[in-house]
Amino acid sequence: MGESTERIAEEEKMQRRQAYIDASRCDGASDCPPRDNCPAGAIFREGDEGPYFVGPECRGCGRCISFCNLKAITLL
Ligand code: SF4
Question: Does residue 53 carry a pLDDT above 70?
Fold first, then answer.
């Protein structure tokens, strides 16, 4: 498999992945580094309280995981 084919395969794999936030771990703080560092703007919540959710905009890059101090995010 050529280098570009491998890169495309890796990108397709990433596109199938999706971040998931465990609501029992997320404290719903207004200061949310994963949300602020998501390149897709995919982390949100309804209103001003409660845990955050990941929307369909998620690209599966995994960047948010390293920003979550509560370890509430996994890639599925
Ligand atoms: S995996 Fe990437 S695109 Fe998806 S929510 Fe996390 S930072 Fe955003």
Answer: yes
CATH number where 61 lies: 3.30.70.20
Segment 36-59 shows an average pLDDT of 95
Task: Compute, in angstroms, the gap from residue 56 CA to the centroid of ligand 1.
Answer: 10
Q: What is this structure's pTM?
A: 0.81
Q: Is the CB of 59 under 6 A from ligand 1?
A: yes
Instruction: Tell me how long the chain is.
Output: 76
**Ligand 1 in reach of 26 Cβ (< 6 A):** no
Domain count, the chain: 1
Ligand 1 pocket, 72 CB below 6 A? no
For the four alpha carbons of 18, 61, 63 and 58, in that order, the dihedral sign comes to negative
Containing structural domain, residue 58: 3-75
